[in-house]
Amino acid sequence: MRLTTASVLLVVALGACGPKPADAPTDGDSVRERAQEAQTARRRTGAELQDRAMNRVIRTVYLCNNSERLSVDFDNPRQMATVRNSSGEAVDLFQEHGADGIWYRASGYELRGKGVMATWTADGRPPTDCRAVD
């Protein structure tokens, strides 16, 4: 391929027409400061995270020792939890005030736990231990 003088000049001229690079430094303290400011802007405080969790519905899936899979929607604004078992049956539980962890119950059903572990009690069946998987 042979380039003519005119095509070389055209490429150089078009390249010069673009925007000039910003006069921002590429190393040193100012770069570090900009990076820290950008990270701080994206970071959420503990109070913001707690507020988000307390004002929305959070879904958690539990696998239980009795081979049951529970899908639980924690509706924090309404202080309720809807538990769906493996066969699709759903029950609404109401939040109780425990020392720590979670505690929801309603007419023979109860979900209690702390961290990733919970105990599920369904009407007429013995309690089973469950672990959150997502």
TL;DR of this structure?
It is built from three helices and eight strands, in the order αααββββββββ. The protein is of the alpha+beta class. It starts with a helix and ends with a strand.
CATH architecture label name of the domain at 54-132: Beta Barrel
Give the quaternary arrangement of the chains.
Answer: single chain
Low-confidence blocks of residues: none
* Widest sheet: strand ordering: 1-2-3-4-5-6-7-8
Strand % is: 35-45%
Name of the CATH first level of the domain at 54-132 = Mainly Beta
Secondary structure class reads alpha+beta
**Shape field:** elongated
Radius of gyration: 29 Å
Order of helices and strands: HHHEEEEEEEE
Tell me the number of helical segments per DSSP (H or I, 4 or more residues long): 3
What percentage of residues falls in helices of 4 or more residues? 25-40%
Average pLDDT, all residues:
80
Instruction: Tell me the major beta sheet.
Output: 8 strands, antiparallel, barrel
**Ends: how far apart?**
58 Å
According to DSSP, the number of beta strands is 8
CATH homologous superfamily name of the domain at 54-132? Answer: C-type lysozyme inhibitor
Keywords: Lipoprotein, Membrane, Palmitate, Signal
Protein name: C-type lysozyme inhibitor domain-containing protein
Pfam family, one: MliC
Region (Disordered): 21-48
Plain-language structure description:
With 134 residues, the protein is an alpha+beta fold. It has a domain at 54-132: Lipocalin (Beta Barrel). It contains 3 helices and 8 strands, in the order αααββββββββ. An 8-stranded antiparallel beta barrel has the order 1-2-3-4-5-6-7-8. Strand 1 and strand 2 form a beta hairpin. The longest helix is centred in the first third of the chain and has 14 residues, at 29-42. The protein is elongated, with a radius of gyration of 29 Å. The termini are far apart. 11% of the residues are buried. The model has no long low-confidence stretch (mean pLDDT 80).
